[in-house]
Amino acid sequence: MKVAVIDLTAKKVGEIELADEVFGVPVRPDLMHRTVRWQLAKRRAGTHKTKAVSEIRGSTRKPFKQKGTGRARVGTRRAPQHRGGVAMFGPVLRDHAHKLPKKVRKLALKSALSAKQADGKLAVVDSLDLGSARTRVLAQRLGKLGWSSALVIDGDEVDAGFAQAARNLVEVQVLPQQGANVYDILRRDQLVLTRKAVENLEARLT
Q1: CB 139 within 8 Å of CB 168
Q2: In what order do the strands lie in the sheet with 122-125?
């Protein structure tokens, strides 16, 4: 499929052919959902933890004798029914990551790209050269284009001036092509690719 190529002043500067096997595949919400869950699970630190009974400060002495007092038997003051005692079945150190097949991840990324194309939320720009690495200049140009929430993907390296200008724009995210992922594509309203990004993504996904 052919789409227009524009510059950052919203002027059309050419056309580009997008591969149907990357930008025109059937949208699979189930695979995108699985991939987003996989990405977010990998980000979790898993460092939340409660102390085990052996880690709680306190005596190991039996508080009172087993029989004859009329009270329930107790072996330690660190038991869970006592104030300051152990927390039963509390969280432990763990890794939340799980495996997801490469084929699923690849198809989910194609599906996310195709979903943006189908919704008319995919734009291709010639380059990210602003001429001036100023946030105000970039904000004005994005406003003219109507891109209030955008993910911008460049080639192997992001244009330094554009990245600096976008640093203080909360709803604008900039990534190199190798960082393209399902979660970030879906969480932004507009997807913006450079010519280099299109070439690299097609080489990566076909």
Answers
A1: no
A2: 12-17, 2-6, 122-125, 190-194, 150-153, 172-175
Take residue 126 and report the two structure tokens written for it.
């010639």
Residues 6+ apart with CB under 8 A from 19: 202, 206
80: number of CA atoms within 13 Å, CB side? 7
- Residue 13 contacts residue 6 (beta carbons within 8 Å): yes
pLDDT interval class at 206 (50, 70, 90): confident
Q: Long-range contact list for 89-92, CB < 8 A, 24+ apart?
A: 90/49, 90/50, 91/48, 91/49, 91/50, 92/49, 92/50
Show me where the domains of the chain are located: 2-44+100-205, 50-90
Prediction pTM value: 0.85
According to DSSP H, which parts of 95-177 are helical?
102-118, 135-145, 160-166
| Model pLDDT for residues 146-178, shown as the tens digit of each residue | 999 999 999 999 999 999 999 999 999 999 999
pLDDT tens for residues 89-134? 999 999 999 999 999 999 999 999 999 999 999 999 999 988 888 9
Query: At the topology level of CATH, where does 2-44+100-205 sit?
Result: Ribosomal Protein L4; Chain: A; (3.40.1370)
What does the block give as tokens for 53? 């009974």
